[in-house]
Amino acid sequence: MVEKVLTIAGSDAGGGAGIQADLKTFEEYGTFGISTITSILTVDPTTRVPDIYPVAIDVVEKQLITAFSGGELSAVKIGLLGSLEVINLIENQLTSLTQKHLVLDPVMAVKTNNDVLQPELVNEMIERLIPLADIVTPNLVEAQILSGLSVIETEEHLKEAALKIYNLGAKSVVIKGGSRFPSETATDLFYDGTNFHFIHKPKIITKTNHGAGCSFAAAITAGLAKGLSLYEAVSLAKKYVARAIYEGIFLNEHTGYVWHGAYQQAENRMTKGEYINEQ
Ligand code: PXL
Predict the structure, then answer these.
(1) Pyridoxamine kinase/Phosphomethylpyrimidine kinase domain: from which residue to which, for each copy (predicted)?
(2) Which residues lie below 8 Å from residue 112, measured CB to CB, with a gap of 6+?
(3) 110 lines ligand 1 (CB under 6 A)
(4) What is the pLDDT of residues 23-32, one digit of tens each?
(5) What's the pTM?
(6) Measured between alpha carbons, how far is 36 from 20 in angstroms, rounded to an integer?
(7) How much distance in Å is there from the Cα of 279 to the middle of ligand 1?
(8) Tell me: the pLDDT tens digits for 221-235?
(9) Domains plus CATH for the chain?
(10) How many CA atoms are closer than 13 Å to the CA of 180, on its beta-carbon side?
């Protein structure tokens, strides 16, 4: 059986983050990816300023209806939302329709630009979507905003932030400290209301990390769809994304994306050699 998995997120015109990261990751996990596009994100190559173009709300709704038209989905991931109406719509759909697992990537900042995206959406996301989520996957900036902590620089701070975000009503939280976390290793923290699990990995010094956060949350979503526990899904997602970062590729001189196919060496599939052997 191939599990059906939905991403509700923004389309990244560059191909490595957002919907594109999600669908590629779902495929790598052997799940069937479905998409609801909430907005389209472009980046000006000169100024490097991202622009978000929301998709009309009735079109978002039609996509959701299409996505759920075959009944229950194995898992759903939420990323960049785009507008308040989208949050309302998603809340209504997700509480009336069914999915086995819900992963919320509370996208508020993109790597190209450290400004917080659409701060007016943050409170709505906290009140309406976090309580529905099996896991919330903030990066450090997002964790600060959701927890209200002004600095997250130590493992104790990470624990405090995770606890505060857990108390907003999600079943679990993983904070992506990653290589921005000021310590020797890239540090993430998973908390499920019982245990704090720190995940340490060597820091990868590279510019090809754009799309890492989206791909990590997408990998957790697909892992849950395939029956992994929350912690197993987080651990495998971490390995999947580390390889994707190592083998990342440049879209242009500024934007280096993770390579979603790295873990399973997708670049070796469907080669001309295979074509010739098949004949
Ligand atoms: O990584 C955050 C993010 C989320 N969603 C979309 C994006 C990005 C970053 O570029 O483009 C659509």
Answers:
(1) 12-258
(2) 43, 48, 49, 50, 210, 254, 255
(3) yes
(4) 999 999 999 9
(5) 0.95
(6) 11
(7) 41
(8) 999 999 999 999 999
(9) 4-262 (3.40.1190.20)
(10) 17
